[in-house]
Design a protein that fits this description.
Elements lengths: L14 H9 L10 H12 L3 H9 L3 H10 L2 H11 L13 H9 L3 H9 L3 H8 L4 H8 L4 H12 L5 H4 L6 E3 L4 H10 L10 E5 L5 E6 H6 L17 E2 L4 H11 L3 E5 L5 E6 H19 L11 H28 L1 H6 L2 H29 L8 H31 L2 H31 L4 H28 L2
Parallel strand pairs: 1-2, 4-5
Antiparallel strand pairs: 2-3, 5-6
Helix pairs in contact: 2-3, 7-9, 14-15, 15-21, 16-21, 18-19, 18-20, 18-21, 19-20, 20-21
Length: 475
């Protein structure tokens, strides 16, 4: 089926055909098929609520969130205006944050408050933290006192901190209980416990964390055993003000499933679980990828004008740095006039240097993000990339040199471009690794401007080496 809507009425479809469609919900096992999206659009256009419910019945919350991302703005608006009641509140927690902000901002405060009240505290906070402050206050005042206090406390923590990331629903037990009493307590208070949890937090009378017990260790123990005898030896306590990148590093290094969060007085205030950490890792990775390309944030759902303005700043900076390379070329105008073949070969030198530098840059940025680079081994990493550039430079120098010599019937020209390639690839390796390391040393984000600096250097060095050597040996 194409993206155009089927001329048959959705009401005329048999249950059998709908069932067949739902058997092929996805294209690759994970993403929704174009056929299903087209069926949903058709049901929307014909206001066929029953067919719409049938189509959505077997979809997960993440699937429905993806559906919203694949519908156009008009279809999304129509869906939410007429069928918002069939959307589970947890769907909003799975949406892209920009799309979610756009959707929630168009809703009445009372409708958003109803959604927020159905979610766990970490997801609820994630939903409202990026909304307009006045709209945010309007939502908060419509919540119950308990929910409002929890969210207001969360908003008081620094952005991208553990306090924003944690959930306030957890299981805390005193250290003098037995396994039997703990199990009886959890069964009796089942409705008040978090929907999913991995560890029990053991606390003293002042709510200071004194240990953790994985659920697996608890259920294997005898009912008569004391809780204090089951606690893990190592406790990984996270301050509420810790940056979320530090949190993800701790989880990755220690293979944690969850960890308690404490306030400045050391009292337990929440728990961070692995599913929240995975979201942060995904978010940070996306940010770094976008920054390397000079894009501040995903702008798929932004208006054309705002997208253009946000990107133009980086393009302007790139233009200014490009004039540096153009200035180097202009110094050798007379040489280019005498040897026109240089103009045809210049892009090869610049392109090879840029690509080699990008490879070294990607490895260095990733190593910095993973805490694999420090003052101890940073120098070794730069030297290694320089040597890799030299070896690759020698190989491609021979290859390109022979091609250029045969193409333009000039052996000296082949030697010139060969030497220029070696010089540029060595500098690309050194600066590709060195620029992000230097930026990180000065507490600057190495993903933001490394690519612009690197492109400027590889173009400038490449042109200067190639045209300079040509001036010496060909003119």
């Amino acid at each position: 089926m194409s993206d155009t809507l089927d001329p048959l009425s959705a009401k005329e479809r048999t249950q059998e055909s709908t069932a067949e469609l739902l058997e092929e919900v996805t294209e690759d096992g994970f993403s929704l098929s174009d056929e299903l999206i087209a069926e949903i659009r058709l049901a929307l256009s014909e206001e066929d609520t029953e067919t719409l419910k049938t189509l959505l019945y077997d979809l997960s919350e993440a699937d429905i969130a993806e559906m919203f991302q694949k519908l156009d703005k008009q279809d999304r608006h129509e869906f939410l205006e007429k069928h918002s009641d069939i959307i589970d509140p947890h769907v909003y927690a799975h949406m892209d944050y920009q799309l979610r902000e756009e959707i929630l901002s168009d809703m009445p405060a009372a409708a958003v408050a109803k959604i927020v009240s159905e979610l766990e505290s970490d997801d609820a906070l994630d939903l409202i933290e990026d909304l307009d402050p006045l709209f945010q206050k309007d939502i908060l005042k419509r919540l119950s006192a308990k929910d409002r206090i929890v969210l207001e406390e969360g908003l008081n923590y620094p952005e991208d901190s553990a306090g924003r990331l944690m959930q306030r629903e957890y299981v805390a037990i005193p250290q003098f209980w037995t396994v039997g009493k703990t199990i009886d307590y959890m069964r009796a208070a089942a409705e008040e416990l978090p929907e999913d949890f991995y560890d029990l937090i053991v606390v003293d009378p002042y709510y200071h964390v004194v240990g953790e017990i994985p659920l697996g260790r608890l259920v294997r123990a005898k009912r008569s055993e004391k809780i204090k005898d089951l606690v893990l030896e190592d406790i990984h306590i996270i301050p509420a003000t810790m940056d979320q990148e530090e949190v993800t590093h701790l989880f990755r290094r220690e293979d944690l499933g969850s960890a308690p969060v404490v306030d400045e007085d050391g009292r337990l205030v929440g728990v961070i679980t692995i599913d929240d950490v995975i979201d942060v890792i995904d978010e940070e990775a996306q940010e770094d990828i976008l920054k390397l390309a000079g894009v501040e944030e995903s702008d798929l759902y932004q208006a054309v004008v705002s997208t253009s303005l946000s990107r133009s700043r980086w393009l302007l900076l790139n233009l200014l740095t490009a004039f540096m390379a153009a200035g180097v070329v202009s110094l050798f105008g007379a040489t280019i006039e005498k040897v026109v073949a240089l103009a045809a070969l210049m892009p090869i030198v610049a392109g090879m240097g840029g690509n080699a530098g990008t490879q070294a840059l990607a490895v260095a940025v990733r190593a910095i993000a993973m805490r694999e680079l420090s003052g101890v081994n940073a120098r070794q990493a730069i030297i290694k990339e320089g040597l890799v550039g030299f070896l690759n430079g020698c190989f491609f120098a021979i290859l390109v040199g022979l091609i250029a010599a045969f193409w333009f019937h000039n052996i000296i020209l082949g030697g010139v471009i060969a030497m220029a390639l070696v010089i540029n690839l060595v500098s690309a390796g050194i600066f590709g690794a060195g620029i992000p390391i230097a930026l990180n040393k000065f507490d600057l984000d190495p993903a933001i401007s490394s690519s612009i600096f690197l492109t400027t250097i590889t173009d400038t060095v490449g042109f200067f080496a190639f045209l300079g050597l040509a001036s010496i040996f060909l003119v």
